[in-house]
Amino acid sequence: MGRDRYRGPVANSVETTETPAPEPADGGPNRSHPLALAPVSSPPVSVDGFVREFLRELNFGQGVALSASTVNDQYLALARTVRHYLMARWLETMRRQKETQAKGVAYLSAEYLLGRQLGNALLATDLTDIVADGLAQCGIDIADLRAQEVEPGLGNGGLGRLAACFVDSLATMSVPCIGYGIRYEFGIFRQTFVDGRQVEQPDSWLALGAPWEFPHPDSAQEVSFGGHTETYTDSDGAERTRWVPAWTVQAVPYNYMVPGYQNGRVNTLRLWRSVATERFDLRIFNSGDYEEAVRSQTFAENISKVLYPEDSTPQGKELRLQQQYFFVAASIADFLEDVLPEDFDLTKLPERIIFQLNDTHPVIAVPELMRVLVDEKGLAWDTAWEITKGCFAYTCHTLLPEALEVWSVELLGRLLPRHLEIIYRINEEFLEEVRERFGDDELRIRRMSIIAEHPERSVRMAYLATVAGSKVNGVAELHSQLLRDKVLPDFNEFYPGKFTNVTNGITPRRFVRLANPGLSELITESIGVGWLTDLERLRELEPFAADEEFRARFREVKAANKRRLHAVLTERDGVSVSDGHMLDVMVKRLHEYKRQTLKVLHIITQYNRVVSGEVAAADLTPRTFIFGAKAAPGYKMAKDIIHLINAVGSTVNNDERLEGRLKVIFPPNYNVTLAEKVIPAADLSEQISLAGKEASGTGNMKFALNGALTIGTDDGANVEIRQLVGDENFFLFGMLEPEVEALQAAGYVPSSYYESNPELRRAIDAIASGVFSGGDRHMFDSVVGNLLQEDRFLALADYAAYIEAQDKVDAAYADQEEWTRAAILNVARSGFFSSDRSMRDYIDRIWHTPPAF
Ligand code: 26W
């Protein structure tokens, strides 16, 4: 992979560009020149200093005068100006990292759901007020520029957002970390609704400029595909193998800043873009075959073109595997070639780096590191395997068997022939160990083999990750237990001590401080500063739950957040949030195991109670049900459920008999930016997945920390939330995981619940009667049919308990003082769910990468 490094002149610090650096003798950067040694300084932290920097950027960077500038010009200039304030920290962090060579984390993730960058950068540099004043002096409202930013939607949901929270925490905790991923040209699709149905639009997030990225084409890595392998005898007579690839692409790194919270540190997120090795074939072009001339370019660019919008069922598409190998190979080459010092002793690699595998998507990194160590670095297989086993750890984020990736040996052998050979050898040696331990227990061997024989010979990536990883963790206590007992029991038995748990967390910087400034102010006023980087200190809020005046202020914060949401949704989607309504919120990807259908059945039940005259509208607790959910484009049932929610919503919203006491709002295109507005306004957080299906959930944590009460099952991290906030401050319902097992084992007959529960029957009959579909009785046959015949996630079995719990919610909400007390205790007792605590657990149990400098 050696390649020649760029040798041109370098500008060192902004202020000093005036005095040109004298030409060094060897043409390289004159590292001893006093200017080269001077630490890069950031612009003056003052309103005037900022305004000068901003206008310079607007004029010289954006090339416009303030008077002629568009909002986008101003936003881009502002972003670049804020970058200047972070640059010194970034370069200093990199310099110190290179100097200390402290052990760090390389987080390998196919997804990063970063959200908008500007607000977080201003918070990290504590520049918000200076910038707001400076812009105001220029006649600009900072809110307009913040609203101009398009969030990088480089992820689907939980897994991608978790990666973003984790890199934020590691930077804030001063832990050396590089996040590696893919710079998709198109992120998660934009969702619009046409007649209540989801329609996907491409997410051209780069169209208006991407001011937060730093491309480094001169640090491109070459990544190969296809071809064949051949064995040869090397100069000292050793039998060696080489890979002869068929085609290559260039991986161009784009660096993003990951600023720590006011600690002077900035870590790096390096996302790879694919470009053709040969961008343009002039010979073919001159032969007049213009398409052919650029074919390799378009072909190569396809690799990082678009994010796969699935978040549970892999499609096994070749391009997906190309994406996974592309970013993994580029990242390993980058780390071994550019981050490590030239003469680094590779046997010491496990003391220098831990590659954390964010689910199975980057697991091809295991055979890739083996290939590099054995084929390119010439290490012996056993030495390479010891190193590899010490360098990887694997986090599993799912419990759905269909979400565990397997790649056919046919496809792997064609795309990555050398890697398949290496996987075969890893499996052979692993099964040898199994035989040594358990003798010729063929059933066990077949069960544990990394290679599955049926239905098609394929590689089980979760098994490969478990065999190679030093540690395997789930993302919540219950999940990790189910991983040990149900998903990977043979491996838990074979590798005592390898399985552990690290319960997920969320960054309080974005999801409390930035999203809920009102609450943050009230907290700081009450317990002082410091809680943002030590969230367990929220415990100090407990006594305030008994303070009536504090409760009133807490309610005012919530009411203000509701008014803000009303303003946002009115402007964004033309829908209004009714004052005085309880906001009952369910925002997450659309998936049957998350049971949005159960939420719909509750809404219809409430609706039926009124239209049947059983309950007077005036006696209803006024509620607005807010949904946010994208469905994978190929997931038909999920799209039908979205259609049903919108259909029920428009019927309920337009039925006078409800007197406006029930409202359904489903803003399209739920993303991080909308979450930051919806979650602080919520009263009730819906976490109603079937027990044993949601690995953890992280939305549940964000709601609790923003003073919403949870109605939920004992699933994922709900269990730990309930245990910490107290049963009395949590609306628990539904079967426990063992009860689900038992019911499924006994044979579940969903229609029997329909028969035996009149309210349930009436709710389902209402859907089938066409009430919500203009009389079309078959519009939702797919959903109704599935609920009555299959109902894989037992929504009907948990219906009665859910409705009962919802009635309790109504009763509880009537006592606002008691409700507020419970909400305050949820905030006070949820400090555990900071991603900083998750990082401490990873460091103690898996990484052993203490905060460096
Ligand atoms: C290959 C298709 C695919 C893509 C993404 C399969 C699986 C995934 C992700 C693992 C799905 C995901 O986002 N899982 C969620 O991860 C969160 C972070 O740990 C958890 O909080 C959620 O419970 C889990 O559903």
Automatic annotation (TrEMBL):
CDD domains listed in its UniProt record: GT35_Glycogen_Phosphorylase (cd04300)
PANTHER family on file: GLYCOGEN PHOSPHORYLASE, GLYCOGEN PHOSPHORYLASE, LIVER FORM
Keyword Glycosyltransferase: yes
UniProt-annotated stretches for the region Disordered: 1-39
Modified residues (N6-(pyridoxal phosphate)lysine): 702
Transmembrane intervals: none
InterPro entries named among the record's database cross-references: Glycg_phsphrylas, Glyco_trans_35, Pyridoxal_P_attach_site
NCBIfam families from the UniProt entry: P_ylase
Function, as annotated: Phosphorylase is an important allosteric enzyme in carbohydrate metabolism. Enzymes from different sources differ in their regulatory mechanisms and in their natural substrates. However, all known phosphorylases share catalytic and structural properties. Allosteric enzyme that catalyzes the rate-limiting step in glycogen catabolism, the phosphorolytic cleavage of glycogen to produce glucose-1-phosphate, and plays a central role in maintaining cellular and organismal glucose homeostasis.
Record keywords, A-Z: Carbohydrate metabolism, Glycogen metabolism, Glycosyltransferase, Phosphoprotein, Pyridoxal phosphate, Transferase
EC code(s) of this entry: 2.4.1.1
Pfam families the UniProt entry points to: Phosphorylase
Source species, domain of life: Bacteria
Family the UniProt entry places it in: Belongs to the glycogen phosphorylase family.
GO cellular component: cytoplasm
Any one Gene Ontology molecular-function term assigned to this protein's record: glycogen phosphorylase activity
Name under which the protein is recorded: Alpha-1,4 glucan phosphorylase
Enzyme class: transferase
SUPFAM superfamilies the UniProt entry points to: UDP-Glycosyltransferase/glycogen phosphorylase
Cofactor section: pyridoxal 5'-phosphate
Catalysed conversion reaction: [(1->4)-alpha-D-glucosyl](n) + phosphate = [(1->4)-alpha-D-glucosyl](n-1) + alpha-D-glucose 1-phosphate
Single biological process term from Gene Ontology: glycogen catabolic process
Signal peptide bounds: none
